[in-house]
C-alpha cells in the first residue's frame, strides 16, 4: 500500500485502538502485523495478531461478536491505528461491553465499573 | 501497587490510550514503563516512556499542552491502559487536535480530516 506504516518500532506490530463509532466508547486494543491489517482492510472485519498465541485471528471468530470496520485512522508517526467500528456484540472475553471495565485508583485498587453482560463459558465454552 | 500489571508482554511497556473525557475523542497513544505510570499517578499529569528517545517525558513539557488525568482504566489482560484526560491544548506535535488526523482508505490513500490548529515551529521551536 502507498502509505508507509512503521511496523519496525513495535517489532512488526502496530497497536490498534478499537472505538465504537456510535457511542465513542473505547472497546479494546489489539496488535496487528501486516497480514492482520491486510485481512482487516480486505474483509472489513477486524483481525489481530495474538502476541500470546503467535497467530492471526479474527475478533469474533468464536463468539460471533465481530467488529465491522467503519473508518481507520493512522497517527502522526504512522505507528498506531485507531479503528472505528460497529461491534456485533460485547467485546470483552470476560463478558463485558469493553475490555476496560475496571478503573485503577492512585493506591492501586481496582473497581469494576461495567455490568457483566454474558457468562464467558456460555459463549467461549468451558475452556474460557 | 496491589494490582499486577503485565509489563512483560510489551518488554516493560504498556500502551496507554489517551481519550478526551469530555468529547470522547481519542487523542493519542503512548507507551508507559513502570516509572512513567508512577509519575502519572503521583502528579496527575500523563508521562510516557519514549521508545525513540529511550527516556521518560511528560506530555506537554515543551508545548504546555499537558494532559490532566481524570480516570485510568485497565483492560482484562492488565496489559493496556485507557486514560481519560482533560487536555490543556491540542495534542499532536504536528499541530492537530489529535494524532489521528488522517484516515486510511482501503487502497492505502490518506486523507487529512482535521484542521491544523498551530504551526509546530511556533510551539516546539525550529527543531520541530
TrEMBL record, chains A, B:
Zn(2+) binds at residues 76, 92, 99. GO terms for molecular function: magnesium ion binding; phosphoribosyl-AMP cyclohydrolase activity; phosphoribosyl-ATP diphosphatase activity; zinc ion binding. This is Phosphoribosyl-AMP cyclohydrolase. The gene is hisI. The lineage of its organism: Bacteria, Pseudomonadati, Thermodesulfobacteriota, Thermodesulfobacteria, Thermodesulfobacteriales. It is found in: Cytoplasm. InterPro entries: PRA-CH (IPR026660), PRib_AMP_CycHydrolase_dom (IPR002496), PRib_AMP_CycHydrolase_sf (IPR038019). Its EC number is 3.5.4.19. One of its GO terms (biological process) is L-histidine biosynthetic process. NCBIfam families: PRK00051.1. Its cofactor is Mg(2+); Zn(2+).
